[in-house]
Amino acid sequence: MTAPSDVIRAMFAHHLWATRALVDRLESLSGAELDTAIPGTYGGMLVTLTHLVDADGRYLQRLEDPTPPPYEERDGAPLAELRRDLDEHERRWGDALDRLEAGTLHARIAGRDDYPDTDDAEVLLLLQAIHHGNDHRTQICSTLGALALEVPDLDGWEFWTSTHPA
C-alpha cells in the first residue's frame, strides 16, 4: 500500500531526476544556444536552470532559517557545478522529508514587504519547490523546442519507466 510519504518522496525524486535530465541535455549545447531566451521565459536556458537550482537551495535554507541572509542571483553556473548542487540538494531534500515523516519538520518564514510572516511554512516551501521546478523546466524545454532542438521527455511516465524497470 502506498503511504502519503511515498507520494511526496516520488514528487521530489522526479523533481531532481527531471532537473538532472535537463543538465544532461544542456551539456551538448553551445554557449550561444545556452544563452537563448524566448519571450515569456525567465531568461536564457543556463540562467534559468541556475535560477531553478539556486532557488531550491534557498527553499532548503528556509526550512532551517526563517531569516536567511540576502542572496545574489548567479547569471549562469557551469553545468558541472549545478550537477554537484543537485547531488547536495538530493541529500538535503531527503533529510527534510525524513523530518517531515517523523513530524519534526517545522519552518517559519519571517515576513518582508512582498509576503507576510508564515508559521508552519514547510508546506509552502515544499509546494513552491515542486511548482517552481516544473515551471522553469517547462520554460527551458519550450526554448529547446523553439530552437528546433531535441526536447527531453520529463513527464511522470518517463520518470517512472526509467526509475522502475519492469
Task: Walk me through the structure.
There is one protein chain. With 166 residues, the protein is an all-alpha fold. The chain is globular and about 45 Å long. It has a single domain, classed as Four Helix Bundle (Hemerythrin (Met), subunit A), CATH 1.20.120. The model has no long low-confidence stretch (mean pLDDT 95). Helix 1 packs antiparallel against helix 4, helix 1 (4-26) packs parallel to helix 5 and helix 3 (45-62) runs antiparallel to helix 5. The longest helix is centred in the last third of the chain and has 25 residues, at 122-146. The protein is 61% helix and 0% strand.
In short:
The chain has six helices and no strands. By secondary structure, it is mostly helical.
Secondary-structure map:
Blueprint: H1 4-26, H2 31-34, H3 45-62, H4 79-102, H5 122-146, H6 156-163
> Helical element count?
6
CATH superfamily: dinb family like domain
Biggest sheet overview: none
Can you tell me the overall shape? globular
Q: What's the CATH class label?
A: Mainly Alpha
Kindly state the percentage of residues in helix.
55-70%
How many beta-strand segments? 0
First-residue to last-residue Cα separation = 19 Å
Taken as a percent bin, the fraction of beta residues is under 5%
**SSE pattern, N- to C-terminal:** HHHHHH
